[in-house]
Amino acid sequence: MNHVQKQKVLVFIVAYHAETTITSVVQRIPAALLNEYDVDVLIIDDSSGDRTFERSHELTKRTDLPFDIRVLFNPINQGYGGNQKLGYHYAIENGYDFVALLHGDGQYAPERLSDLLEPVTRGRAAAVLGSRMMIPGGALRGGMPLYKYVGNKILSWFQNRLLRSNLTEFHSGYRVYSVRALRSIPFERNSNDFHFDTEIIIQLMIAKLPIVEVPIPTYYGDEICHVNGLRYAANVALATLRARLQELSLFYDKRYDCAPVPLSQYSPKLSFESTHSFTFDFIPPGSKILDLGCAGGYVGFALKEQKGCRVTGVDALPGQYDQELDSFYARDLNDGLAGLPVEDHDFVLLLDVIEHLASPEGFLEELRERLSLNPNAELIISTGNIAFIVTRLMLMLGQFNYGKRGILDLTHTRLFTFSSLARILEQAGFVIVRTKAIPAPFALAIGDNVLSRALLKTNSLLNRVSSRLFAYQMIMRVKPLPTVKSLLHDAHRESDAKAQLLAKAAAPR
What we know:
Number of helices: 18
CATH class of the largest domain: Alpha Beta
Strand order of the largest sheet: 3-2-1-4-6-5-7
Low-confidence stretches: none
CATH architecture of the largest domain: Alpha-Beta Complex
């Protein structure tokens, strides 16, 4: 006879000064859950000053309760969020499939556990939130104070706007999580305070893990509220704002670094004013292109397909379009240019690459030496402008936050202004032909819409006022000056040619 192994569910109860309610909460957990799941109960008393632990410990000895019950006591108060971290780590460590969060004060109905478990155990969600706001007016009829109701609505609206989500409520403490989902997010980095609940929702959203809401009844009794409402609201708003700023590459917080890793962190920027569109518009049809650090091959592929250029790509790893180019070299540019056909091309592209190199001075000198063998060759180079007004303002506020993208990308080893980039190029032996200020890529940050196009146009106009202050990036066309070696080579060649002409002229007719 085949026995299907049941999924393991941990009902985790956070308890603090819950001596009068903890017994009732445990007794109300439906015994029918055992028909579908293998269920255990964990109670963690967060260093209560009353008899919460004693009441909870008594439950472990009762024979009329169908669940195995484990009770832990924190010798030092960990806070609401800190207590959750312990429970979720317990679930991970002990091989549970799902963990359901209950409060020891009885604010949430244990009778609804089956409803919350169903979506996550059936694979439709990574997390299920019990919402008191799904049924219009239900929260108020259940006794939620008007000021809390209004605050909940305002905060949830604000969070939905910033996070581009549509949850009816962010602030319910009745939840079920997949333990697999918990393993994939850094919840241990979250606050120990009450806005832990907001931070873990944001992490799930960033990780692209599905969240489902189910309606739950609202109950407010005579329990003691340990939440400072104004402080909680401020912390929630700040946590949400930080997540949004990180998405815009203006801030970095490791707790929100949980997005799925893309095949390439670079995106095409050909449809709006950018380093990509500038390069594409400038290069003549039929040119021979060497794209160093081609990062997916977007620019090279467009030049090949739309302008008939012959394109050679070079990057550490192949990208989306690299194999569509005429040739591709897998090469870490920190290893130099040996073996690459640099001098055989009309244009060399170094778009958003120089800031990644360990020794940009040495690399540019080697590149100039190779390009000087082709007097018609030209280099197009771009990088971020560290003096961009947003970076300046952040620095003025004491913030210098590296992030996943943008000027302060975590992978950048060097940062440049217009002047410092011009100086390093000139010292390497290049002469600057043209410099252009590039606006911020608003279309990538907020989508290609009316707002992003208006911001792009405004940024472009401001660049005319002060490119050093308002340019997000800079791009330069430069030509290599001849090296002494190439000049000597030319002198030998020219003298040989002149000598031949003199010999021909002196020969008897």
